[in-house]
Amino acid sequence: MTDQIFFWGIILFLLATLGIGVWASKQIKGDSVNFLVAGRGLVLPLAAATLMAQSVDSNATLGNTDLAAEFGFWAGASLPLGLALCLFLTALFFAKPMNRMGLITLPDFYRVKYSRATEFVAAIIMVLSFSFLLAGNLVAGGFLFQTFLGTSYLAGVLLIATIVFIYTASGGLFAVAYTDAIQVAIAFIGTLCLLVFISTTFGIAVPDGMGPFDLAQLADPAEGAAINWATLLALGLGDIVAIDFMARVFAAESPETAQRACFIGSAGTVLIGVPFSMMALGAPQILADAGVTPDGPLLFALLQNVVPPALGLLVIAAILSASLSTADGAILGTSSVIAHNILGVRHTDHNAAGDRLLALTRVMALVITIMGVFFAVLVPQTGILLLLAFDLGFAGLLVPLAAGIYWPKATNYGALACIITGTAVRLLFFVMMPTMFGADNTLLYIPNPIFTADFDGFPTLISPLVGLVVFVVVSLMTQGRGGSGRRLTEPTLEGVSHVES
């Protein structure tokens, strides 16, 4: 009976999500601006909900729970806290100026401020990193369907990828925003109900050295401090250059709405994500007392064997909502970057068949979905893929973005040097490290005697510092040599017409 409840509940939820997404396609009206940034008209509740939904993903729930249970509170909580920090910093320093610029995608900034070459290189890195992000959420869907629908892992990945692709390609950011609003509400209610059940039924047990006040997790490398700080910074700073977050900033109806939505999204991310870290601390003992040995994500074992079926279904819907909400943003953001910034199709490019940018973005959505499936099959892990995605942005893209707004001496040469050097250093560390954020490097590892697992976490901290130094030095050396970045003044950058010219 329990299996039947899970099966039909999941099926109905997926059909409802698909229906809402396809219904939203009516608002596209053949215009790529409607498709990509919802006509720049998202009101505060929708803007805040969709920002929160992008940060509360399967990595911050399933990955969070697995990491906290194995390594301690800060290993798991660093995921949602890092994402919340990103939204908070975006609200303080980036939301208003970025919304005023009238951009369609984040790489547009690198073209407007620096050059077409800088835009192209930045876009390539963003596409690569978001392929990992998409994959992390498809991994969660694959495990979920394998556990509760009885499919194979591959079939589960293909199923969730197909559903997200259909409604995202149909309705664009309108579909994403409407479904996100519902999904984040489910996630909030599901998290609250599970927290109440676990705390009243079993209590919140905190093993020695594993709790939020055991600060050795943030101070002692032997306790994972380097990895935990790397997680916080990769997400808190690297996620600022996330194309899905910035698309929602661009889509807000005003700069003030964009800023407030980021603040609300930051608070909501903490409220939803941190309880999973706390519940995870006592979960292994709860399962041991029930005679259960987890096979797969820890949270799934709890829902199958300990939690009442109705509540379990609600939490499953919450996890599935988290996966869908981030996967749709990754597909939409990445496909738009491929079409608009890599292939160079602009909003003004029309032909007899209509808006070319809209048509090509939908085609690229299929391409990026296939890439996500490939990485999900290659690396079936949740939390690690999220961190790898934003490590790349942190290493090379953040400094040119911040300096482009706040440092008048930033130059095109400095930006390119920073992006290329920072990213190259991070990728070099990646292939030389046997582990990444505590997990085995199964993607690409070159065995060597220099870098060991003890160095894990430090590549995240070192790579952006190298990029920063290179950026400052090269920018100062190339002042007045034809590589100076354009001065950003809000009145001249408002509106799509200027950015697209």
> What percentage of the residues does DSSP assign to strands (E)?
under 5%
Helix content: over 70%
CATH architecture: Up-down Bundle
CATH topology tier name: Sodium/glucose cotransporter
Helix and strand run: HHHHHHHHHHHHHHHEEHHHHEEHHH
Please indicate the count of domains. Answer: 1
Shape: globular
Let me know the largest β-sheet.
2 strands, antiparallel
| Low confidence ranges | 489-501
- Structural class by helix and strand composition: mainly alpha
Radius of gyration: 22 Å
Distance between the termini: 61 Å
Arithmetic mean pLDDT: 85
Number of strands: 4
CATH-assigned homologous superfamily:
Sodium/glucose cotransporter
At the first level of CATH, the class is: Mainly Alpha
Strand order of the largest sheet: 1-2
The count of helical stretches stands at: 22
Distinctive features:
501 residues, mainly alpha, Sodium/glucose cotransporter, two-stranded antiparallel ribbon, 22 helices, disordered C terminus
Structural overview:
- The protein is built from 22 helices and 4 strands.
- The chain starts with a helix and ends with a helix.
- By secondary structure, the chain is mostly helical.
- The protein has a single domain, classed as Up-down Bundle (Sodium/glucose cotransporter).
- A two-stranded antiparallel ribbon has the order 1-2. It has a two-stranded antiparallel sheet with strand order 3-4.
- Strand 3 and strand 4 (439-440) form a beta hairpin.
- The radius of gyration is 22 Å and the shape is globular.
- The longest helix has 49 residues, at 153-201.
